[in-house]
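Task 17 of the worksheet. Students: predict the tertiary structure of the chain below and write it out as structure tokens. Keep your answer in the requested format; marks are given for formatting as well as content.
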Amino acid sequence: MQAATDFEPETRNRSGEHILISLTYIAKKTEVNSGMELTRALEHWRRYFEESGISSALVFNENYFIQNVQGSRPAVNHALAKIVSEYLDILPNVIGVEEIVVRRWDGFLIKYLTSSIEDEEYALKSFSAGSDFNPYLMKNSQIASFLKAVFADEQINKI
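Model answer:
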């Protein structure tokens, strides 16, 4: 009796590289960064995400931020671990992880919220806790709506 040995197990996609996920987290900044430090950090993460095949949408002000990252399961998990290990002054609160079929964002989108009327309108449309941007007061569905509203123009341009 001869055993069938021509079966070769598939070695690729063993870590979930073929599965796209979307991860959203919120955080509060505990340290004040200078404009130069912030610029360097944003450029560092833009390059890292680009090299890792991750797209992202980031909204922040002086105190808080929301970030949604999308990419392969291993890449997104590695990015989250890197964020936690490199930025000890923040503690990301993961508020949502889901498998996705297609990415919503193209590249590394950034929106710095000011006290302008337009930015206040984003906040007022998305949640009823007032016009101040504080994602800790927002429900998950409100955060998703907020990100969509902030980056609506980018999505129109993408289509």
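Marker's comment: The radius of gyration is 19 Å. The longest helix spans residues 35-52.
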